[in-house]
Amino acid sequence: MDLQKKQRHNINSVFCPLEGTYRGCYRVFHNEYIHQIIKRSSTPTLVLPQGRKSSDYFLKSHSHGNRRAIYGVITVLLLLIVIAIPRVFAQDAKEIVQKADQKVRGESSIASMTMKIDRPTWSRTVDMKAWSKGTEYSMILVTDPPRDKGTAFLKRKTEIWNWVPSISRVVKLPPSMMMQSWMGSDFKNDDLVKESSMVTDYTHSLIGDSTITGYKCYKIKMIPKPDAAVVWGKVLIWITQKEYMELRVEFFDEDGNLVNTMNASDIKELGGRELPARMEMIPSDKPGNKTILIYHSLTFNKPIPLSFFSTQNMKRLQ
Q1: pLDDT band for position 142 (cuts 50, 70, 90)
Q2: How many Å apart are CA 220 and CA 231, to the nearest integer?
Q3: Do the beta carbons of residue 160 and residue 189 sit within 8 Å?
């Protein structure tokens, strides 16, 4: 056997110590190496062929059945990857929304803010204080103008209450009122007291990315779960990829029509966190209308007892 045939023989077959003979094997040329896998052998042999280049890269088998088995394994792996991808993206989307929600909530929060209602022929402002604890407890107190001063809204788990000082009465709001305007603004009752949870009441999917005012954002679609007490048919939300800030939210009704668009801006430090200080809610069917919510201060993770969030305390807030 001349040298060339001997080299080819050594490349195409390998001695199997279990059977005492040469056997066919798979060859993969990669980076000047051949990884040879011997059928039924526990001692694979690594061979560096003479005269081979890194451009030689192929899979070869002397057994048609073995090649079919390898292709079958590759097919199964590809199917598993394709099946797993949607689940990974769904999980990532939920985690993104959860991080953004946690950033603006904290374990607890205390806020001072002003709401300005703009209409084509008039405008008015409302000053407020707000307290929250987790996702189940929140309180909003109106401090100005004088005619609305003392009005309070309380969320306690699944119950929503409204204290009206002018009639000295506490009113429980039914779920059907969550889509009603909050104090004549473009915000809904649900927007302010957040009866629904962005994290637990929706399924989330990552559908793309875009740039808003220089911030690269995730675009996430949220569809309400069948048994969730949610007023929207669909929500699209844009969350910054590094800071997890909500910069844009689009709210759709059950028929798929755009109802409101919220744009956030004026990024600054609030409570030690980088957050938008200005939010504009713009209705799609009322040109010239918008409501602006401006945060003056935010304090996070200050202990607030659960007893604070009571219908009795609503009457005492100042």
Answers
A1: very high
A2: 18
A3: yes
Q: How far is Cα 184 from Cα 177, in angstroms, rounded to an integer?
A: 13
DSSP state of 186: S
Burial annotation 118-153 (CB, 10 A radius, 16+ → b, else e):
beeeeeeebbbbbbbbebebbbbbbbeeeebebbbb
Domain boundaries, the chain: 3-62, 94-314
Q: CB pairs under 8 A, 24+ apart, for 218-224?
A: 218/93, 218/96, 220/93, 220/96, 220/97, 222/97, 222/198, 224/196
**Is residue 31 scored above 70 in pLDDT?**
no
Q: The whole model's pTM is what?
A: 0.69
DSSP single-letter state for residue 303: -
User: Percentage of the chain surpassing pLDDT 90?
Assistant: 55
Q: Are 116 and 125 spatial neighbours (Cβ–Cβ below 8 Å)?
A: yes
Architecture in CATH of 94-314: Clam (2.50)
- In this prediction, residue 105 carries a pLDDT of 87
- CB distance 158 to 195 below 8 Å: yes
Residue 169 falls in which region: left (phi positive, over 0), alpha (psi -120 to 50) or beta: beta
Residue 276, pLDDT > 70, answer yes
Structure token pair of residue 12: 């195409």
